[in-house]
Write a structure and sequence with these properties.
single chain, 239 residues, alpha/beta, 7 strands
């Protein structure tokens, strides 16, 4: 359910292979909750005139579309990803929504963001940070390109704390989701990779600690849908 931007072991190539059905599968496999999660992220972006946003691991551009939908003040949104086929879909999506004068996809690595220091008011990344080979390097890059006082907003899967919900979630995640995703996308490996990457990635307070280690302050987390996903927020000191 996620592509990569600066991915570990070239996973962006795997997700390029399922680009055509990626959005459909996100809606179906999350029962439509993926849209609500992205809207929750977009609503946390602080409103300001000429807002400049970098969306790392942008994939098909859903996060930037959500941010632009919530904040008409956006001056520039850059969708940053290694997956060229995904970016092609993002470009067409931005044009269809009438945002192509402000939102632009660009191909690049989340670990090496090709923008000067203090360029953006907000950096977002949804369901992509776990695919980055060096998470610390990517977080430090996000810190570098943010203006003082700028926001980091990270949306990622997590494991629910409630035991009955966790058991049901893990059964679905390990067995049903890979089966359905594999049939629809014709790439079972991509959806087997999904649950394995989620279960091996630090979440909750462990991931908050990694964000703090990259220099962010005011780090906090907001569990969504019983903790199936978590929104992490932090700020670059200053301003």
């Amino acid at each position: 359910m996620r592509r990569a931007g600066g991915s570990r072991n070239g996973t962006w190539e795997m997700f390029d292979g399922i680009a055509a059905r990626y959005d459909l599968l996100n809606r179906v496999l999350s029962f439509g909750r993926d849209r609500a999660w992205r809207r929750a992220l977009a609503r946390q972006v602080r409103i300001r005139s000429g807002l400049r946003v970098l969306d790392a691991a942008t994939g098909t551009g859903d996060v930037l579309a959500a941010v632009a939908g919530e904040h008409r003040e956006i001056g520039l949104g850059v969708g940053w990803d290694m997956a060229g086929a995904m970016l092609g879909i993002a470009r067409r999506k931005f044009a269809r929504l009438g945002f192509d004068d402000r939102l632009a996809p660009a191909r690049g690595d989340a670990q090496r963001v090709a923008f000067p220091d203090e360029t953006f008011d907000a950096v977002t990344i949804a369901f992509g940070i776990r695919n980055v080979q060096d998470v610390g390097m990517a977080l430090r890059e996000f810190h570098r390109v943010l203006k003082p006082g700028g926001q980091l907003l990270t949306l990622e899967f997590s494991i629910p704390d409630n035991r009955p919900i966790r058991r049901m979630y893990l059964f679905y995640f390990r067995h049903i989701l890979p089966f359905v995703g594999g049939i629809v996308s014709s790439d079972r490996a991509a959806y087997r990779y999904l649950n394995r990457s989620v279960e091996s990635f630090p979440y909750g307070e462990a991931f908050c600690a990694r964000i703090r280690a990259a220099g962010f302050v005011g780090v906090r987390r907001r569990p969504l849908t019983w903790g199936i996903a978590t929104l992490y927020l932090g700020e670059k000191p200053g301003a």
